[in-house]
Amino acid sequence: MRARRFRTHLGRITGGALVILVGAFLTLPSLVVLLSSINPTTVLNFPPQGFSLRWYRELAERPDFRLGLLNTLEIAAASTGLSLALGTAASLRLYRAAGTATHWIRAGLLSPLVLPGVLIGVGLLLFASQVGLVASFTILVLGHTLMVLPFVLQSLWTSLENLDPNLERAAATLGARPAQVFRYVTLPLLRPGLLAGALFAAMISINEFAVSLFVVGRRTQTLPVVLFNYTLAYVDPSIAAVSSLFILATAVAVMILERTVGLRRLLRLEPGP
Amino acid sequence: MTVAKGSGRRRTGWVPLLPALALLAVLLCALFLILQFSVRAYIPGSLQVGGLTLANYRRIFDPLYLGAVWETLVICFWVTTSSLLLGYPVAYALVRHRSRAVQAGLLIVVILPFFLGTVVRSYAWMLLLGVHGALNATLVGLGVIREPLRLMFSRAGVIVALVQISLPIMIILVAAGLCHVLREHEQVAATLGARPTQVFLHVTWPLSLPGVISASIVVFGWTLSAFATPVMIGGGRVYVMTVMIYDQILGTGNYPFGAALGVFVLAVDLLLLRLIQAMFRALRGGPSA
Fold first, then answer.
1. What is the average pLDDT across A233-257?
2. Backbone Cα Rg of chain A
3. Cβ pairs A/B, distance under 8 A
4. What pTM was estimated for this model as a whole?
């Protein structure tokens, strides 16, 4: 009996150690980037030789980074708005009327989750060349909307599953017109899903790379594409500064998600019914 | 009540779906164009394509491209198995740890890198793996090794970075599966005298298999489509399928051959996912179930 308890204890300790090691493995790269970005010397060395915000100041003077940041924010805003509008209308309809056709439409809209991004990028490049949209903002926004829509649909789906249709019926019985029911009953009840979907969409769009690489032009480069091309040519720590900004923005977004919707609920980590 | 419901549905009809359908049409057009370009002849120096041909598909069987297929498969295999082995205990702790605070903290650690783009994370690994990078500096400083390890531009380096990149999604999907394993089942087994290892092997693991399967399939697919990491860490020396598409399309401008490679990648992707599904299904029907 004592031997068994000892073995269980040993198992728990090795398990705990493994979990801590994996946690460190997941976190270490971001920490190294943050440390490099405040290192004053041009050559990257560890540990950092001091503290300086030099690389952040240099960012402001780089036109390509500034243009990339502006493009990224514009495209993220456009594709988030578009995917929320498209996604809300579509998922209400898809959720309420289940059938073979709606099943395939939903599967098609979710397919960018599993299709290789490079493939979608190449396809959109060919599409753009056929319809005269090469290197345009339009094709970038279309591509990003395609890539973020699955996340919007999924988070709205969770909200729809929790929405009691009797509330809408009650409002209708009391004389509300369909538009009023939608505005004053459905939409407020879908708020958590919409909020989570918006944050998801913005984060995925800001970080989107594989599709963007194929459809950007010189004037429409997004920040990840600028970053990618830059790392292939230079190694100075200004890239670490940009990456740190990405890390900090992501951390803020994750905190907002946790505070508002709750990550466990969002990721379906609660025991199901 | 029935009147309101019926008239509401009739009034909405297919209209709310139209914008989403238009977007879906763009995706289908894009995929169809890949198929169409893949059977056209390449005219060097021109973006116009020639007549119908199967030459692009024949060219895939060149040893250079078959080598890339093999390289991709080897990387996918190692990334999927290592992230499953490393991720399962974390997923378990995420769902089963006694303390809610530990669970919440762990979830943040897992989810932060999930939302960070592959370019930023691959760049982080460039900083870590370089000859003068953080890892080598630490190991040399501690006297563990004398000469810095060559990790950049190697398959091992690409695999390590990709494991870190796929771990979050592996952990989340396995944890979602583990949620459905009821604690009562485990407790019943324990009450009946099963040792913790037996409980795990005969109750927890078989019941968590659906999550493990979908997680492995997703990670395999993501690794197959991974692109930034092989280019940035592999530096042209780790030649995988997505890199060869990139080279053809954005390098040489050979759209037809790039498109054929794209169709080929998709076919390999679908075939392998089927294989993994079949493999796990056989495993589930095996002695452990």
1. 88
2. 23
3. 269
4. 0.89
